[in-house]
Amino acid sequence: MIQDISKKINFLKENPKILEGILRGIERETLRIQKNGNFSENKHPCSIGSPLTHKWITTDFSENLLEFITPTSNNIDYLLSFLKDLHSFVASKTQHERMWPFSIPYSYNKKTNIKIADYGTSNIGKIKSIYRTGLKNRYGKLVNTISGVHYNFSLPLKFWQHWKNWQEKKDEKSNKDYISSGYLNLIRNYYRFGWIIPYLFGSSPAVSSYFLKNTDKKYQFQKNQENIFYLPWSTSLRISDFGYTNTKIIDLNILFNDLHSYVKSLKNALETPSKKFVHIGLKNIKGDFKQLNTNILQMENELYTQIRPKRKTKNGESLIEAIEKRGIEYVEIRSLDINPFSSIGISKNQILFLDLFLIWCALIDAPIMKKKDFLLTTKNWEKIIFEGRKPNQTIYIKNKKEKTLFEISEIMFQDLNQIALILDYNENNALYQKACKKIMLYFKNPELTYSAKFLKNIINIGIKKTGINLANKYHKKFIDRSHINYHKKFLEKEVLLSHQKQKKIEQEDTLSFEEYIKHKKILPCQ
Fold it and tell me: Going from the N-terminus, what domains does the chain have, and what CATH number goes with each?
């Protein structure tokens, strides 16, 4: 089931420096809330910059859904420090508010006013807002306020170069195609084994009643005194059908087998009308857009998957164009819940483990996937999402045979420990080995997992009290940090620049909005 990669690991031991220079980036979402836990109804504060053009602080779906973005770096401590400074900067500008420390919004009722994010009057700003209007009309407002952490990861170019030479594939493919093939191999393995992430770090074992409407009765939910529904063994309902998942990628025939078929299938989803979304209509009776178009996907961003291939884009270039021209540059991990036990939603140990696991996914040969293979992987994810901590929980392996999580983890961690030795050699410490040792305990004792600890608080203390207590605790930490915020002047400068950039964009628009979206080929064929 799991390939023997001892020869590959030995090669890395002989050439440890090819793993130096791993690049990472973090995107963390969080809802701005009132002190009583309810959604903030204030607009995105001008004092923290323009959400359209600020490099590091923006909004996601709604005006109160913040998104913090770090620069790309090979230094984990720098990334975490920068992320803390972003939180500290915003907290100092919004002292009457707090940041919700969970992925799932629980303080919601029919009177809650969720305002779609506003990006100004420019054409590009209107596209961003109308895209979100489309998300609201397609999936609903509340589900789009669910928060997560995205982890961007790329292996060094020297790794791919040495790896290609060692495998004696010098003339088989261009570097672009070889690296893209390597990342797609990683992605297929992430689908095969990535259920380990919600098992370890899932932090959304409960949802409010608003998420359970029109659902089947497959799982018997229990509820606490606040009418919050949970499953006793669940890990991450955020990445279930109750959460942000929308169009099934298997229905789009996206299987990540090769770059050409991936691009082709994604283009097809972007250009094919959906019966369901055609029914919504393109505009209302006032002539306002209800969605950007009526296709299966309005934009590439609407493909909500556990992991996505990515590439930096140039001005005026779409992501799909960039990947098609220059190949895959990095992967974006999207299956991380907000870590409620960290003020910034993610911990160093999580990053260390993700590095190990993603390198392992790159090393293991991933067979080409057919639909039946992909369906089997989705069943494993479903098992972990809904019943991951169930005693003696099993995972399907080849030919629908099953092994327990503990059996699979023992095999996996033999390799992960070896990779940790290599990375620690490069860093001249033992952090990766320590992280590996600590996290392996989660399989021996599921009560150590984030979801188990989270659920215990929900049952014993209550979700609202726990959330507000943590929000206040973290707010104090951010305010205390504001006096030593290394990036404070830098961020103040970026606030001014972002407003200037937005104004310039708005002034330089020459096309009407209708002409602009036709030029961008966003409207459906009439």
Answer: 6-519 (3.30.590.20)
